Amino acid sequence: xxxxxxxxxxxxxxxxxxxxxxxxxxxxxxxxxxxxxxxxxxxxxxxxxxxxxxxxxxxxxxxxxxxxxxxxxxxxxxxxxxxxxxxxxxxxxxxxxxxxxxxxxxxxxxxxxxxxxxxxxxxxx
Amino acid sequence: xxxxxxxxxxxxxxxxxxxxxxxxxxxxxxxxxxxxxxxxxxxxxxxxxxxxxxxxxxxxxxxxxxxxxxxxxxxxxxxxxxxxxxxxxxxxxxxxxxxxxxxxxxxxxxxxxxxxxxxxxxxxxxxxxxxxxxxxxxxxxxxxxxxxxxxxxxxxxxxxxxxxxxxxxxxxxxxxxxxxxxxxxxxxxxxxxxxxxxxxxxxxxxxxxxxxxxxxxxxxxxxxxxxxxxxxxxxxxxxxxxxxxxxxxxxxxxxxxxxxxxxxxxxxxxxxxxxxxxxxxxxxxxxxxxxxxxxxxxxxxxxxxxxxxxxxxxxxxxxxxxxxxxxxxxxxxxxxxxxxxxxxxxxxxxxxxxxxxxxxxxxxxxxxxxxxxxxxxxxxxxxxxxxxxxxxxxxxxxxxxxxxxxxxxxxxxxxxxxxxxxxxxxxxxxxxxxxxxxxxxxxxxxxxxxxxxxxxxxxxxxxxxxxxxxxxxxxxxxxxxxxxxxxxxxxxxxxxxxxxxxxxxxxxxxxxxxxxxxxxxxxxxxxxxxxxxxxxxxxxxxxxxxxxxxxxxxxxxxxxxxxxxxxxxxxxxxxxxxxxxxxxxxxxxxxxxxxxxxxxxxxxxxxxxxxxxxxxxxxxxxxxxxxxxxxxxxxxxxxxxxxxxxxxxxxxxxxxxxxxxxxxxxxxxxxxxxxxxxxxxxxxxxxxxxxxxxxxxxxxxxxxxxxxxxxxxxxxxxxxxxxxxxxxxxxxxxxxxxxxxxxxxxxxxxxxxxxxxxxxxxxxxxxxxxxxxxxxxxxxxxxxxxxxxxxxxxxxxxxxxxxxxxxxxxxxxxxxxxxxxxxxxxxxxxxxxxxxx
Lengths: 125, 837
Prior knowledge:
Chain A: This is Transmembrane protein. The structure holds 2 protein chains of 2 kinds. By secondary structure, chain A is an all-alpha fold.
């Protein structure tokens, strides 16, 4: 079995990292909302925070993998943008570069969303 | 392979005559049956501008009323109707449709295509929009306009005593318009992915197309939650199902969630296309390619995603847990990153080029300056503690107008000045443009900046008057003066657009020396592009010598219309290699009939005219079936077509190769989102109550599981029908289709039997109500599935379906994949969840 997936040519790989961000965001919101609705409102988030912390690490790892694949598709940075030649190679490089940029943004956005897990300890302090 | 064909003068003339004949716009009253993208785009845009002017007049009335304290210019109720309609019309009838209009007008030529893939769908969307818009706007002349604010919060808006029929007009009129938006989204996604000129790989796509692709995708996930919300809302108003009534287990907050899951992405759905116009205008006036093409793609995609994580920031004061607020606050701050990126990209492009300051650039730059101020106050209100202070004050009114007018109206006016030559072959006046800009820019700031201060001094939004001597008088008077200065600027733009210009000489075809393909379109000709070019640059007009002459001389693909059909090329998603010659629908009255009869359904529902509703619904169905039967999956006389330059392409494809399959897939993705929103409602009620059934009997387990089983069997029968059809075994195909239809009918009955036999009363409590609504949604989808099966059966019997020509069946099977997932989820959850929790 391969550890790193083969290169695939598809438009959809562009959206991998932001999709991971969206799933992470929804998981955090829904889990915390159900916890706060079903537990006592003053209850500590305790284990829920811990679980969501692990989800965050998993999401960041997924995005890092997506970034690595993008970096590989970008030829490990062998060519500079703008990648505007009418060739399949430049199209691939463009896809790799754009995916890499989106992975970076998604990584930062996941970190943003994870900050409350560190600082907020209860549903209604 | 040759890249250019040489034709004799006679051949060219003959081809041009053919093309003119095929693409001509009918005359007389039949002009309105045209489906050509240039006409539809123009009507769409003009209608949206008319609605904008109407809503602008309402805003002026509001400002006059607020100019001085204790004013009695408008009554409280008229004031409420005026501001509600102002917000509603600006958002739903101007901001979103204007981008659909611009896209339908510009995209085909920008992509080097003759037409978008579904021109009749564009026409249907326009007529739905126009009719729905007139209906909603007209209500104020009867004193019946919605009066509860543009986001229609219950319990105020569910109170029939207070809100009268206005709320129904809002809900039904706008649902109708949302249908048009989703139609446009389908059209644009398929158009951008599949109809680009050969060679226009995704790294060569104009940025406008990138933005529009993202925006259309956002519409697909943003509008359906509102449609789901509208269904719940209307069921409460019409039949007393208590979705938002707290006394019977409902919760008004569910509406706020559904509304803002739509409402916040909507802001970006409005903003991104306007910024897309800037991404076309800035490179032209810097006379160089955009700096950071990939960064713009990052910004568009990133904003598209992040904007869905912001909705609760409209609900910071509703008492949600602080941890939830913090997640949304964090995402609201994060969205500033991609938004900032695109602004820096524009600044970098301007710095790297030699900027020519012209009227479009004035409006663009002025708009960006205003937008940045709105963005900064946006970062402020994204912080929960600040928002608690500013919520529902004029600070918010100021913020949202800075964002929307700077981020949308100014760039759109820039676009009007920039693209006007494509309409009329003449430019608008530079002098009037500059006067208009300075009036609008200064008027805007005079009007809206003081609102920040009035808000910080505590002035709540939506009050119809206020007492003197609490420190708001001067701010309001200044705002009113500014509003009239701003309106004067808008009036000058209108005068400039409308003044007769036939005495002026015609200008050049590409007066700004732009580099992108939309400038090849000739205002007098309806064929879009004379021949479909091979693209080798992001800015073909700058980089590909002679491309305009070659296109006009018919030296590229599809220079003729031999069979008298409207044709364009379908190309592959990534590398834009030609794969099909697509025949698109021509002039037809069917799309108008379908739109008007569907409009009849919504309007009759508003007034509870049940018989008229039924008649209109049957007419809609008949019109749509006639449209499909005569205009889609047409079997061509010959299988292949010589498209020129030594290339032949198939005329008929099915499955994922075909545009129809994509359209079905995209439509069902939107439909699935609406369904997911209803299921969100089901679980929402579970979270807010200790026992969400409140002791009411559920649908039981037996009947829902029977429905799951029967729907699954019906789906398997559809797979068998497809298999039989692949072997050209007609009798077996028909048998499987019939069997599947019978199974679906049985499945629907089983689904309904659950709640019916246990006597669930949807007016008693929210639990039976949500069970019924999920059941009905699923059963109605089953009903649509049966109609589709009957349609395939009829196609087969009419000899229009075979193994080679199986587009109808493949698309219906695709629908069934979505249907079976819906059915298993619905009846699985309804049957099993109450026991599991």
